[in-house]
Design goal:
This protein is an alpha/beta fold. The chain folds into three domains: 126 residues, Phosphohistidine domain (Glucose Oxidase, domain 1), CATH 3.50.30; 110 residues, Enzyme I, Chain A, domain 2; 321 residues, TIM Barrel, CATH 3.20.20. Helices cover 48% and strands 14% of the residues. It is built from 23 helices and 16 strands. Strands 1-8-7-3-4-5-6-2 form an eight-stranded mixed β-sheet. β4, α7 and β5 form a beta-alpha-beta unit.
Amino acid sequence: MQRFTGIAASPGIAVGKLRIIDRRRIAVTELAVAPEAVAHEIRRLTDAVAATRAELEALRSHLAETTGDDHLFFIETHLMILADERLVSETSAIISSGLINAEGALLRTLGRYREIFAGIDDPYLRERIYDVETVIERVLHCMGGTAPEQLPRHEERVVVAAHDITPADMLQINRDNVLAIITEIGGRTSHTAILARALELPAVAGVDGIAELPLDGQQVIVDGTSGVVIVNPDDEAFRTFLSRKQHYDYLESELLKTAHLPAVTLDGRSLLLRGNVEIPEEGSSVLKHGGAGVGLYRTEILFMNRAGLPDEEEQFGVYRSMQQAVAPHLLTIRTLDAGGDKLLDGMETVVEQNPVLGMRAIRLSLSMPEEFKKQLRAILRVSATGPVRIMFPMISGLEEVRSARKLLEEAKSELDRAGIPYDRQIQVGVMIEIPSAVTVADLLAREVDFFSVGTNDLIQYLLAIDRTNEQLSPLYQPLHPAVLRSLRQIVHTAHAAGITACLCGEMAGDPLYLPVLLGLGFDELSMGAASLLRVKQILRRCSSQRARQIADGCFRFSTAAEAELYLKQQMTLDVVESFD
C-alpha cells in the first residue's frame, strides 16, 4: 500500500482502477545553433505556434457542437495566449541573441513567465501560470511532431492520474467512465480544479511523482475532501475509505434533497445564500446546490495571460453567459480586482515594492477610465437581460466611490446615446475589505446600495497578516476581537442606512461561523457552491435568537482562541440537543 498526500481540489471520494496517462513535460535540450540557422529556428517556432492555434480552433469548433458555447472560455484563454505577439517575439529574440534552438528558447521564455507569476500574492492569480505552461507544452509537442496521450474514453471505472490535465481535457471527459482525477501539479484554484468542482468530479492536485511510478492498473482510493490518495490499499484502508465514501455519498444525497428548501431559521428569519464563481460552468452547480444566484463573480480571469485588454464585446459575451447560467437569479459582478503588475500585460506598469498595497483593484480601474468604462458598459448591457448588480472592490474612501459612480453615469449616457437598453435601477455596492472603509462605513453607506465584506482581505489588512505565509497562518484569526468588532460595525452601519449587509470569503462558507454571522445580522452570505447546502443545514437548525446569543457570547472573550473554543462548544451543544 502506498499513501500520497496532495491538495484537496474537488470534494468527493472515489474507488477504482488507476489509469496513468503520459502527460510528462517534453524533455527539451537546449542546443547551440549556427548564426545561419537562426532564421530556420524562428520559422520552426512560428510554424509550431500556427499549428497549435489551428489545433485549438478545431477543438473549439468541436466543443461548440458537443457541449455548447458556454464551455469555450478556457479554449479562448489559450488562444489569447497564443495570440500574444510577445510569445513569438521574445522567444525569437532569445534564439537570435543566444544562438540556441527554438525549444530551448521557448523554455527560457516560460522560465521568465514562471518568475513573474511566482511573485504574485494571490494564489488564484498565481496559478494562472498553468495556462501558459499548457499552451507552451502544446507548441513543444507540435515542434516535436508528437501528441500527448489522450484521456480514456471507454475504459470503465478508472481514476486518471497525470502530470497535468488541461481544462480542454476536462471538458471532453467521459463522466460515465472517469471517477476522479489526480494531477502532479496545480492547486485548488487552478482551472482544472474549478472545472472538476463544477463537474462534481473528485480531484486531488499536487501529488508529486505519482504519474512517474509503475502503478498503472492498481486499485486506488481518491479522497478529494482531504487530499489523500491510497494506491493498492490493504483491507483495513479499503474498508475505512469505503465506509467514508458511503457516508459522504449519503450525506450529499440527503443534502441535495434540501436544495429546494428555503434558507430560513427555525423562527422564520431568511438569509440569502449565494455562490462565488469565476466561470459560467460553475453557475449550474450553484443552482443545483440551492444558491439564490451569485454574490461574487470575479472578472479577473478575462484580463489574464494576454497582450491587450478585453474589449467591450468580449466582456459582454462572457458576462451574458454567466448571467444566463444563473438565470433567473441575481448576478453580482465585481469589477476588475487585480494589479497591473499581476495581470494586465498590455499596460505599461512600474515595479512596486508592495503590490498588495499598490496600484490595484478600483485604483487601477480609475487610472484607466476608458478601459474601466468598457467593463461598466458591458455589465450594464447584461443587466438588460436579467438581474445584475455592480460591486467595486478595495474601496478605501468616498472619493473612490464617487469617481467610480461618475464613470458609471458616463457609461450610462453613452449607452443612452446609442439606444442600448440597460437596467436603470441597477444596484451599486462596494467591497468592505480595508480598515479605512470600516471606519468611514457611515459615509459610504449614504451613496451605495449594499456592502459586501471581503473577509479574506479584511482579516489580512486588519491583523497585518500575509495569508499566504504558512508561518503566519496561526495568526489568521476570523474570530479575533478586531475582526468581530469590525463586522458588527459594518452590519450596524449598513442597516442604519437602510442598505444590505453581505459577506463573501472563507468565513461565509464555513458552517462553524454561521451562527456568528447570522447573529451579527448579515442579510446575505456568498460562498463556493459545495458549501451552500452545509451552511443551509446549520441555518435551518438554528433560531435567530440563539444565533444572537452565540454571537454576543463571542464578544465576551479577549482572544480568538477563547472565542473559537466557546463557539465550538455551543455548536456541539446545539447538535446534541437537536437529537434529544
